[in-house]
Design a protein that fits this description.
By secondary structure, the chain is of the alpha+beta class. A hairpin with a 6-residue loop joins strand 1 and strand 2. The protein is built from 3 helices and 4 strands. 54% of the residues lie in helices and 18% in strands. The N and C termini lie far apart (92 Å).
Amino acid sequence: MRFVIRFIFFLILVYIGWLILKQIFFPERKEKVRKHIRERREMVKDEVCNTYLPKEDAIHKVINGKDYYFCSDECKDKFLFKVSSRLPLL
């Protein structure tokens, strides 16, 4: 029984030592996570497939003064076809 308690105590000490060494030698990992959280990107919605994607990755199109964002050229083309079919012929 004593052996088991000593072994568990030894494992706890090894784990605590590992955590301390990790903080000393690899502090940048924690900073990377914090940096990622600070750099949250604005998300926009694709009007065709209703997915959200980062604004800088989206395809942007202005139609009648309103901004629209798309995840792909295919979604953009579908939307433009749908909008053009709703517009009256001049």
